[in-house]
Every structure is written in structure tokens, then in C-alpha cells.
Amino acid sequence: MSSTGVRSQESGVRGQGPGTRGRGASAAAITEADPQVLSTEYSVLRIDGAKSAPSATSHSALRVPHSALLAARGLFKSYRKGRVEVPVLKGVDFSVRPGEFVAIVGQSGSGKSTLLHLLGTLDAPDTGEIHFEGNRIDNLPARGRDVLRNKYFGMIFQFYHLLPELTMLENVLAPIMIRFGVWNYFWHRREHVHRAKELLDMVGLSHRLAHKPRELSGGEMQRTAIARALITQPKLLLADEPTGNLDQQTGSEILAILKKLHREQGLTILMVTHDQAIARQADRTVRLVEGKVAA
Ligand code: ADP
Ligand code: MG
Predict the structure, then answer these.
(1) Measured between alpha carbons, how far is 62 from 121 in angstroms, rounded to an integer?
(2) At what angle do helices 168-180 and 3-16 cross, to 10 degrees?
(3) Pick from 123, 77, 69, 145: which is nearest to 240 by CA?
(4) Could you tell me the residue ranges of all domains in the chain?
(5) Whole-angstrom distance, CA of residue 52 vs CA of residue 261
(6) Can you state the angle between helices 189-202 and 168-180, rounded to 10 degrees?
(7) Using one digit for the tens of pLDDT, what is the confidence trace for 264-275?
(8) Whose CA is nearest to atom 18 of ligand 1?
């Protein structure tokens, strides 16, 4: 599977959520020969630790907390409907510390998915900045965003976004094939498959390895999506209404898995939900009101 496959999959994801306006021409116009782009991309490929290139803008100038894993400052995002500009985010300031479990709440249409998509680099803000581990990420070229997401972010969505032609085991392995390439993947296939089976076992699905998504329930698909998000050992799990399409009992089971990952493995989780009862389970709740984080 190629990284092109990922982009098209993500395009599908975008198509079901907020739009893609704003990513646009600058990323598309970038060529591999552009030295500035290559150096930015290179710094992302080495984003971890001391070896990564220093951010172009200092922390203090942006008031980005040093302790933050992910931080957003002054995010604005509008959508255009015909000739009308519809402002959705109007100056969002927000950060997540390592090891936190944060819920973003707000009414339907308040911009929760828009914000999560910006933070996950699936879309770009009109203005403002997003930093991950002190590195600016909102202005990366497409390849840099792909690498960043594959290496550091796990994502789960309300409608799972599993690939219908693949079995559950293959769905979980897909991010690994994308990261290492097919040849390298097959060379280390045994250990990757072992890890995928461990994760499917952890989410209670070891008996469903060869099934395809259409043969499974919503809860089973979301469990698979969680295993897929974890196979790359992400530093941050982004979840957009992960229980939104499930009955109450199944939703509680999915949330119990997320809480266990947070409690036992220290996974940092950022979850969007419109459900107060679900949000209360997180360490901290952030409310979006009229395009801003409410005080
Ligand atoms: P939430 O997730 O809180 O329900 P969204 O972020 O999905 O809200 O949407 C916020 C607002 O932005 C809504 O009014 C929605 O109609 C609008 N919106 C989202 N995506 C698009 C788009 N692609 N084009 C135009 N408007 C959009
Ligand atoms: Mg939403």
C-alpha cells in the first residue's frame, strides 16, 4: 500500500467532516526541489528530541507552554458557503500536556470536528499556529503531515473509516505497511502480525482476525480502529465522537478501553464529544462556545 493510498483514505475522511478549504494551493504547488520545503520536512522526520531542528518561532513569542505536547494559538477557521464566509473558529487557544485525557465539548456545529481536524493536520487553519513537541506543524507540506500523522498520531472517528476490502488484521497492519514500505513490512512480517494480534486481543477481538468490516458490529469496528490507531505506538490519540454511532452499553465499553490505555499506558488522549456523560470521564473538559474556548 502506498502513501498515496493514505491520502485518498484521508480525503474520504475529510469529505465526511469539515471541509478542506485552506490547505489548498501552497501545499499542492510545492515541489520536491524546493529547498525550504525539504528542510521543513526533514525537521519533521526528525521531530523527536534534541536532533530536531529548532522551531522558526520561539515559544515565548507565541506563548506556547513548554510543557505542552500539543498547543494551538489564535486559530481562526472559516468556511465559504457561496459568497458567504461562515466563521467557525474565532481565535482558539488550547494545549494538551503529555499524559492528559482531555475532552472537547460543545453543541453540534460548534466546530469541534473542525478543531480536531486542524490539530491532527487533516486541514489547515486560516491563521494561527499549532505546535507539537515544540515544532510548528500547521504549515507543513503534505509529505511532512503524512509522516507526522503516521509516526506520532493515532486517530479514531465516529464512522471508523476502516478499509472495506481488508480483513480486521490487515486494517490494523495498514499503518505499519505505510510506514515501512511493503518490502520492509514483509521482511519483519512475523513481528508486526504478532503485535497486531496482541492489540486486537487487548480490545477483545482476537476471534475476528479474518473478518471484513461489513461482517462486524459498530462496536467491533471501533475496537479495530483503536487497534489500528495504536499499532504505530502514537504519542497522541485523537478521537472524534468515538462513541457517537454506538448504543450506550457499547459506547461505555469503548470508553473503558480508552480510559485503560490512558491509565495503564499513559497515552495522551484528545477526544471530541457532544455527550456530557462521556466527557465527564476525561481528566479535563474544554468547552467550545461561539468559536472560542470558554473560560
Ligand atoms: P461539530 O463537530 O462541533 O458538530 P463541525 O466542526 O463539524 O461542528 O462544523 C462546524 C460548522 O462548520 C458547522 O456550521 C458546519 O456546517 C460548518 N462546516 C463544517 N464543514 C464545512 C464545509 N466543508 N463547508 C462548509 N461549512 C462547513
Ligand atoms: Mg463533529
Answers:
(1) 19
(2) 120
(3) 123
(4) 3-36+98-124+139-293
(5) 28
(6) 130
(7) 999 999 999 999
(8) 18
Distance, in Å, from the CA atom of 261 to the CA atom of 246, rounded to the nearest integer, reads 20
Ligand 1 near 111 CB (within 6 A): yes
Q: Which ligand is nearest to the CA of 117?
A: 1
Residues 73-111 have pLDDT tens digits of 999 999 998 999 999 999 999 999 999 999 999 999 999
C-alpha to C-alpha distance for 9 and 121, rounded to whole angstroms = 14
For residue 81, the ligand 1 atom closest to its alpha carbon is 25
Ligand nearest to the CA of 158: 2
Of the listed ranges 54-68, 159-173, 211-225, the one predicted with least confidence: 54-68
- Domain 3-36+98-124+139-293 sits in which CATH superfamily? P-loop containing nucleotide triphosphate hydrolases (3.40.50.300)
Cα(120)–Cα(236) distance, rounded to whole angstroms? Answer: 10
Ligand 1 atom with the shortest distance to the CA of 111: 6
C-beta 108 within 6 A of ligand 1:
yes
The burial of 56, by beta-carbon neighbours within 10 Å (0-12 exposed, 13-18 middle, 19 or more buried), is given as: exposed
Residue minimizing CA distance to atom 25 of ligand 1 = 79
Question: Do 112 and 274 form a contact (C-beta atoms < 8 A)?
Answer: yes
Single pTM value for the model: 0.81
